[in-house]
Design a protein that fits this description.
By secondary structure, the protein is of the alpha+beta class. It has a single domain, classed as HIT-like (HIT family, subunit A), CATH 3.30.428. It is 32% helix and 12% strand. The protein contains five helices and five strands; from the N terminus they run H-H-H-E-E-E-H-E-E-H. The protein has helices at 3-7, 14-21, 34-38, 95-116, 170-192; strands spanning 58-61, 65-69, 79-83, 121-125, 139-144. It has a five-stranded antiparallel sheet, sandwiched between helices. Strand 1 and strand 2 (65-69) form a beta hairpin.
Length: 200
């Protein structure tokens, strides 16, 4: 184990806490139907943000992937897409997890774009402390890039850092996550089409 693994062992990992508080649907099919994929999007009641501490604003809770708002967002609608099982780096992913992340990531990018009202965004994934990975659990950041950038004291727009990142307000988090779940359902209907079977 390296030092970052010791800093955040799986039993103390905040992303593992979120994954366990928001269980996956009970289907075991490897090619889920639209209905089974849609069951991965929590209802308003299931998405109770106070199930864990700190609060989690969950958008997706599928078999192998969870997606939730960053609680220290760089911009409005900054979303994290994480593996359900504790994996430290991308190299630790197994095949099914990789396929499922590959399925959901472009869909969630469209959701972020629509909800944030932007056309440009970053998808960032860090591996290890020297690569700016703060929580040692595989996750992708989808960061909307609005036309008007937020005011930053040092006038530089860096990808990550310890600069100005305000905590996500509870009311705003609930609102954004609810809107994202609604848009995600719409996107899922569009890609599944008439046969109602997704391609994982």
């Amino acid at each position: 184990m390296n030092e970052i693994d010791l800093h955040y062992p799986p039993e103390a990992c905040p992303f593992c806490n979120i994954a366990s508080a928001f269980p996956a649907p009970s289907s075991s099919l490897r090619t889920p139907t639209y209905t089974e994929q849609a069951a991965s999007i929590p209802t308003e009641k299931e998405a109770d943000h106070e199930k864990v501490s700190p609060n989690a604003y969950v958008v997706l809770a599928s078999r192998d992937v969870v997606a939730f708002l960053d609680i220290l967002p760089m911009t409005r609608a900054h979303l994290l897409v994480a593996t359900r099982v504790h994996r430290v780096k991308v190299q630790d992913l197994e095949g099914e997890e990789s396929r499922e992340i590959g399925f959901w990531l472009p869909i969630l990018a469209r959701v972020v774009s629509r909800v944030a009202g932007v056309r440009d965004y970053n998808i960032v994934q860090n591996n290890g402390a020297r690569a700016a990975q703060v929580v040692p659990h595989v996750h992708f950041h989808i960061i909307p890039r609005p036309e008007t950038m937020p005011q930053i004291q040092n006038k530089s727009w860096t990808m990550f850092g310890r600069g100005q990142r305000d905590e996500l307000d509870d009311e705003e988090g609930v609102k954004i996550a609810g809107e994202m779940r609604s848009v995600l359902r719409e996107e899922l209907k569009l890609i599944c089409g008439k046969d109602k079977v997704g391609k994982l």
